[in-house]
């Protein structure tokens, strides 16, 4: 279990906003970066990180990366992201990655399983974000919260890749608290969380537990439901490799014989 030693509430939210913004600013300045690029999904996590970057006073560019600008899901996500742009004056760009993803899949000479295919867009998005970041001497900033990290609900080397992550120890409930204090539009706060893997997909439907249950499990050791607890435990067990360091042979295996 991840050791979490703080809880963000309505009473201390402003204090934590200041602390997290300071963390972002110092991380960027220490590395001598010009600012950050942020993959803007139109969801609450990316919206909160965008506003925290503004509070930090650093350069931030929102990058929307739909895998088809014409789908219902992507149209809605772009509309929500543009509401943030218009409300708070962010710099932004939109890059449709549909053709890249199609070419990627077509270049592989074997049929892909559904999950393998769904993980292509997140990895393409991260490649684009890192190209933009490197081109502008910037950092890629992450948006994954603690619930997603703990349960492995992210694409390895996709949306799980970043240079710094201000939300990595915050539960989904804590992100919502910050969103209200950061004046994130209510339409984004109330929007059902979705990774946008396919039309109609929701995080909670995929996870098999609500974010409230996952938050309770993290904070109190149980979701309040035996069934949900088991689902959460199983997901944690299956996903430990996503948070572990890459194994590297160091010559310490004493069973080797020469």
Structure, described:
This protein has 258 residues and is mostly helical. The protein has helices spanning 13-30, 44-56, 72-88, 98-107, 114-118, 120-135, 146-151, 172-181, 186-189, 203-207, 211-220, 226-243; strands at residues 36-39, 60-64, 91-94, 139-140. Helix 2 links the parallel strand 1 (36-39) and strand 2 (60-64). The protein is globular, with a radius of gyration of 19 Å. The N and C termini lie far apart (40 Å). The relative contact order is 0.15. The model has no long low-confidence stretch (mean pLDDT 93).
Summarize the structure.
The chain has 258 residues and is mainly α. The chain has twelve helices and four strands.
Present the secondary structure layout.
Elements: H1 13-30, E1 36-39, H2 44-56, E2 60-64, H3 72-88, E3 91-94, H4 98-107, H5 114-118, H6 120-135, E4 139-140, H7 146-151, H8 172-181, H9 186-189, H10 203-207, H11 211-220, H12 226-243
Parallel strand pairs: 1-2, 1-4, 2-3
């Amino acid at each position: 279990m991840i050791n979490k030693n703080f809880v963000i509430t309505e009473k201390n939210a402003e204090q934590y906003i200041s602390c997290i913004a300071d963390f972002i600013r110092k991380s960027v300045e220490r590395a001598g970066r010009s600012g950050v690029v942020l993959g803007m999904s139109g969801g609450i996590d990316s919206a909160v990180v965008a506003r925290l970057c503004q509070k930090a006073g650093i350069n931030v560019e929102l990058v929307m990366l739909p895998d088809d600008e014409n789908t219902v899901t992507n149209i809605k996500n772009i509309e929500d992201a543009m509401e943030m742009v218009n409300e708070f004056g962010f710099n932004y760009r939109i890059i449709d990655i549909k053709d890249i993803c199609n070419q990627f899949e077509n270049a592989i000479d074997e049929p892909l399983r559904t999950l393998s295919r769904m993980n292509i867009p997140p990895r393409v998005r991260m490649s684009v974000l890192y190209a933009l970041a490197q081109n502008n001497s910037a950092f890629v900033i992450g948006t994954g919260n603690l619930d997603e990290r703990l349960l492995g609900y992210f694409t390895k080397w996709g949306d799980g890749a970043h240079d710094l992550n201000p939300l990595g120890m915050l539960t989904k409930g804590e992100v919502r608290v910050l969103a209200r204090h950061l004046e994130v539009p209510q339409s984004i706060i109330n929007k059902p969380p979705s990774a946008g893997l396919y039309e109609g997909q929701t995080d909670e439907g995929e996870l098999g537990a609500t974010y409230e249950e996952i938050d309770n499990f993290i904070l109190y050791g149980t979701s309040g439901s035996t069934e949900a607890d088991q689902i959460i435990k199983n997901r944690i067990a299956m996903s430990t490799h996503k948070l572990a360091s890459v194994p590297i042979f160091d010559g310490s295996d004493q069973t080797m014989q020469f």
